Amino acid sequence: MANIILLGPPGAGKGTQAKRLVDERGMVQLSTGDMLREAKSSGTAMGNRVAEVMARGELVTDEIVIGLIEEKLGQGAGGGFIFDGFPRTLKQADALGELLARTGQGLDAVIEMQVDDAALVARITGRFTCGNCGEVYHDATRPTKVAGTCDVCGSHDLKRRADDNEDALKTRLMEYYKKTSPLIGYYYAKGQLSSVDGLAEMDAVAAAVASVLDNA
Length: 216
Ligand code: AMP
Known about the structure:
There is one protein chain. This protein has helices spanning 14-25, 32-41, 45-56, 62-73, 90-102, 117-125, 166-180, 182-189, 202-215; strands at 4-7, 28-31, 81-84, 109-114, 127-130, 136-138, 158-159, 193-197. The longest helix has 15 residues, at 166-180. α2 (32-41) crosses α3 (45-56). β5 (127-130) and β6 (136-138) form a beta hairpin. It is of the alpha/beta class. The structure holds adenosine monophosphate.
């Protein structure tokens, strides 16, 4: 079992790779973005409070996301945790290290998914997902076989994220470069960083991620 971080800008493919690791290795995906969207759709006070911040593409406060992760870490994961979209700031990275140490766990690898900005814009602005099973689609590169119906579970509940538009994406990218990209140096200095080409075919990316995991 291994605990890993998937690191990369929005649209790098972190969620897609995380879902494969869940299916193939029984790992547990901890996506703070998914947790925040769930809090919003279930109408909790915290969810409502952060909805506008998220829609603009800005980061929510460190305290909120660290609290979300702390709750989940206590529950443990036999197959290991995949941190997807967390940490996103140096403060969150320090907090994760402390939380793992406190619960007797470690961090085995940090996988940076490298992509270029032009590809991100194209990927994100065509993206939609199945609200029932979470399958990810794209208008141009991966449409559903039958319009309006999920290939995997047959649901008609196909959704676009409120922040998957060009304006919010610009803010999300800026937040990434200002606040999250320093984590690349942070984990490199700790000897934990591996980088994969996130622009390769989905299966080739999965193979590169698997090889990092198997050598961790
Ligand atoms: P994601 O689904 O990972 O792209 O996250 C969607 C949005 O949720 C981000 O643009 C932020 O507003 C918020 N968010 C998710 N994870 C974090 C985090 N670790 N720190 C701060 N904000 C986050």
